[in-house]
Design goal:
It is a single chain. By secondary structure, the protein is mainly alpha-helical. It has one domain: Lysozyme (Orthogonal Bundle). Helices cover 62% and strands 4% of the residues. A two-stranded antiparallel sheet has the order 1-2. It is globular. It starts with a helix and ends with a helix. The N terminus is likely disordered.
């Protein structure tokens, strides 16, 4: 009996020491509870939600956080700064998920159906007629396209120009100017700089 009491007391001491030694930094893993929480990621998602709300994004309130999470996750996956993605959304659609341009670009990131058809396998979303009207799919295609363009152009102005006018047209137009500073690219870069001053990097 005494041995059992000593073992129980030892177990309590080890438990207290373990709890008091937890490091509650930006990233805490609650592995013993079966889940992990990355506080840095959660903070970034909440800041994106606040940014979208501040910009009066035309996304239903019940979907706002899910869209912010999709944007953050896609940006991490495809290695595109989410603050640049927000700047592109601002210039392309003014954060409207229901807008369709005269050129046929759709949604919050103004993605063309030809882009969605071309990259559906890479993004992992089957192409269907109305797929780009879904904010989540639209964001994933748009972020992937930015990432894909960055493989061909080594500066952000060129990437943004190609995103705006299309890869083929951009390649033809940029034979003499590898860093096109148009009204569109300047607008996006100015907003990007403002986002970098207000939102944390990852």
């Amino acid at each position: 009996m005494k041995a059992l009491k000593y073992l129980a007391l030892l177990g309590m001491i080890v438990g207290v020491v373990s709890l008091t030694s937890l490091n509650f930094s930006d990233e805490v893993a609650f592995s013993s509870l079966g889940f992990e929480v990355n506080w840095e990621e959660e903070r970034a998602v909440e800041l994106i939600v606040a940014h979208l709300a501040d910009k009066n994004a035309l996304i239903p309130d019940e979907q706002l956080r899910d869209v912010a999470r999709t944007m953050y996750d896609a940006s991490r996956r495809y290695e595109v700064d989410y603050r640049l993605v927000l700047a592109v959304m601002d210039a392309e659609s003014n954060f409207r998920h229901d807008v369709v341009s005269d050129a046929g670009a759709i949604g919050i990131m103004q993605v063309k159906p030809v882009v969605a058809r071309e990259f559906s396998d890479e993004v992992g979303i089957p192409y269907k007629r109305d797929v780009l009207h879904c904010p989540h799919a639209n964001v994933r295609f748009g972020v992937y396209y930015l990432s894909w363009l960055s493989r061909y152009y080594d500066n952000e102005y060129a990437v943004l120009y190609a995103y705006n006018v299309g890869f083929t047209r951009a390649r033809q137009n940029m034979q003499r100017n590898s860093e096109p500073k148009t009204w569109y690219t300047r607008k996006v870069m100015e907003e990007y700089e403002r986002n970098r001053s207000r939102l944390p990097g990852v």
